[in-house]
Amino acid sequence: MKKYDLYLFDFDGTILDTMAALEFVFSVSYEHVGVKFDPKDTVEFSRIPLDVGYKRLNANPEKWWDFAKYIEKSLDFKEALERNHPYPETYAFIDYLRKNKIRAGIVTSNKIKHVKEVLEVMHIPEDTFEVYVGNKEYKFFKPHADPVLQALKRAKYEGPLEKVVYVGDGYNDALCANNAGVNAIIIDRINAFEKSDKYTIITNLMELFK
Which superfamily, per CATH, for 6-17+84-209? Predict the structure, then answer.
């Protein structure tokens, strides 16, 4: 596969299997505002902005900020943190990044404080990634280009955009990359995505380096 000068990664569902944790977080947070959450919607809701999912479930608009605060709080509950798991290739992937001194960053819709706490629990060194961009670091959510553009700015990247790739697990990640003018890769571990000239599909993070 083509080699890049800068690799940017989504977090949830890309580097770590966080779906069980997110199922817990969505369930208790929606319950907190009187709405029942269907666990089968976890993957879909993890890939869309929080407010979009909230409106889709017709939750009370007056309780939005209470819900959003509870989401942030529950992400760090012990019960949530313990539900995060590595993918089979996660540690080999991290080891490869570190040994080969590959420039890499995290671009996520999550909060960076939480991401770093999960990395600590998973015994993944924080300095594996040189830049972290989360929902407090940009104005416009994916699929807008802003998250990736903020990462480029924070990484002080001045090279050609064709030498940058953003790897995620959903269409919004690919569209964000497209809108920012960088390469898009979707990691599809369950054969859920159709082929497209807008992105490349891989099934394992180590395929990036073959």
Answer: HAD superfamily/HAD-like (3.40.50.1000)
Listed by start position, the domains of the chain span 6-17+84-209, 19-81
Q: What is the CA radius of gyration of the chain?
A: 17
Instruction: Give me the percent of the chain exceeding a pLDDT of 90.
Output: 93
Beta strands 104-107 and 6-9 are parallel
Q: What contacts 163, CB < 8 A, 6 or more positions away?
A: 4, 5, 6
**CA 182 to chain CA mean position, Å:** 17
End-to-end CA distance of the chain: 6
Token output for 199: 């992105």
pLDDT value of position 165:
98
Whether the model pTM is above 0.85: yes
Q: What is the DSSP string of 89-120?
A: THHHHHHHHHHTT--EEEE-SS-HHHHHHHHH
pLDDT of residue 103 exceeding 90, the answer is: yes
Query: pLDDT band at residue 31, thresholds of 50, 70 and 90?
Result: very high
